[in-house]
Design goal:
It is built from no helices and 20 strands. It has about 250 residues and is mainly β. Strands 4-9-7-6 form a four-stranded mixed beta sheet, with no helix packed on it. A four-stranded mixed beta sheet has the order 11-18-17-14, with no helix packed on it. A three-stranded mixed beta sheet has the order 5-3-8, with no helix packed on it.
Amino acid sequence: ATPRTAAGQHPSACSGAADANYTIGYMAGTVTVTRAPLTVIAPDVQQAYGAGLADLVPIYRGFVAGDTAVSTPAGCTADAGSGSDVGTYPIRCTGAADPNYDISYVAGTLTISKASQTITFAGPPSPVTYGDTPTTVSASASSGLAVSVTVTGPCSVSGSTVTMTGAGACVITAHQSGNTNYSAAPDVTRTLTATPAGLTVTGPSPTIPYGQPIPTLTPIAVGFVNGDTAATLTTQATCTTTATSLST
């Protein structure tokens, strides 16, 4: 038997003894080579949700006598797959065999972390004019999760429809907060600018008999949108005339 002799029982023999006082006989013995301990360790693997499961390669500890492999290699499997939720799952290896090794196993861990996501947000048309038809914005997340839209400035939002409530810059923010399997996406902002709507204010053209007092001159405004009226104006228009009650 040598360090590379297979496990099992192997004969031993003795010879060469001499002594004038003894008649020497020999009996064979047995060398028993036991299996060496070998540990098969399942790998620890980390991956993002939705990623394809990496190859699970077992790790061997305990080879002796220059060995580097077993007769029948181990196979490793995880209690999860690419569609499994975020969490930790055991990885186990089985099936290794070799006549020279007593094989034991150590489990590993598959850790599935949250996947990242991004938002695609097409920019709204800009500028528009105050009073134009409300604008529909389009934002989607790479995860397929619903994207919420918020606004700041002279505007309002309902679902994906943005209405300018005044002239100026409306900042539109698309947001996806993530869930069990996805991290929150970075917010994406776009700006929708509304220029003032055209409004024409015309002085009145009353007919007044000579000698009568000039009545109050009320301006006539044409071009209001969004249900606005003259009362909506921040500063009201006033009208004057050079005519007097004695003008001809």
